[in-house]
Amino acid sequence: MGLFDKFKAGLQKTQSKLAHEIKRIVTRSPRLPAEALEELEAALISADLGIDMTAQILEAVRKSYESQGTSGLDVFAVAEREVEASLGSARVELLRAPNGPTVVSVVGVNGTGKTTTAAKLAHLIQSRGQTVLLAACDTFRAAAIEQLKHWGQRLKVDVVAGAYGADAASVGHDAVAAAQARKSDYLFVDTAGRLHTKHNLMQELQKLHRVMGKQLTGAPHEVLLVIDATTGMNALNQAREFNKAVPLSGLIVTKLDGTSKGGMVVAVQRELGLPVKFIGLGEQPDDLQPFDPKAFAQALFARQ
Ligand SMILES: Nc1nc2c(ncn2[C@@H]2O[C@H](COP(=O)(O)OP(=O)(O)O)[C@@H](O)[C@H]2O)c(=O)[nH]1
Ligand SMILES: [Mg+2]
């Protein structure tokens, strides 16, 4: 399956709803009177594209109608072009440390998909022919350690874990040391879910990062916040608060397959000025995809 088809399949709920609405509005009112534009606005907002992006698309549609009339107006093409321009066309790749292992910390609130995403990232790196290690730094829940070990067995990736209740920072330290000793290309660190409002848990995350940085200068090289697309704009607050405590290098938006509000990817990237590096389009290892702005915009506004 090509990239566009993968994105389109994963975004199916958002795409089919948008396509249905846009076709209905344009077919009924091809001259796009004010009421039709309001309906278009409502459709874009309900896909969680955000107020600014929606306003920008409407303005471009209006201009296009003024210059070309109904015959030349293609709402799908205009919307796709505006979204792509907003996202910026360049892919933002996972960093690679100049030497030694690249350490990537995976953070976020409970249930967003951190553990699954850490495993999927390991799978992606392996499929590129590079070596990888996982660290089970969610020591709060015994089940979390088991879950990551289970993924490790399935993907044949080694997992550095401590005992349930152990200090996450000491597991992190050992995992970085192991990655150095083995000369692994990447280490993905699964962390405990924490509410962005809980100060002490945020301090614990800072400690984990500090300890890893002492073992290996520059670590963690990436801090990726995992946000769940089905929680909509609430993810914006999470991102702002996490970013204050541990500077984030990028976002991963998961569960896009489970929502008709996939436009939130555009809204969060616009509002936060942080790149979306990967998107989760399902539960299988292959369902984590490097974010591609062009393919995303095309898939979001595919006609059918
Ligand atoms: N449909 C779908 N489910 C996902 C995706 N990413 C994660 N999940 C599911 O979300 C649930 C919580 O994931 P988990 O990794 O345990 O979240 P954590 O608490 O943040 O570590 C699991 O059932 C995952 O299979 C995704 O992109 N799509
Ligand atoms: Mg977890």
Report what the structure shows.
The chain is an alpha/beta fold. Helices cover 53% and strands 13% of the residues. It has twelve helices and eight strands. It has an eight-stranded mixed beta sheet with strand order 3-2-4-1-5-6-7-8, sandwiched between helices. Helix 8 packs parallel to helix 9 (199-215). The chain is elongated and about 65 Å long. The model has no long low-confidence stretch (mean pLDDT 95). The structure holds guanosine-5'-diphosphate and magnesium ion (MG). Guanosine-5'-diphosphate binds next to helix 6.
Strand content: 5-15%
End-to-end separation in angstroms reads: 17 Å
| Global mean pLDDT | 95
Q: What general outline do the C-alpha atoms trace?
A: elongated
Structural class: alpha/beta
Strand order of the largest sheet: 3-2-4-1-5-6-7-8
Number of helices: 12
Helix content: 40-55%
Helix-strand string: HHHHHEHEHEHEHEHEHEEH
Assembly state: single chain
DSSP strand tally? 8
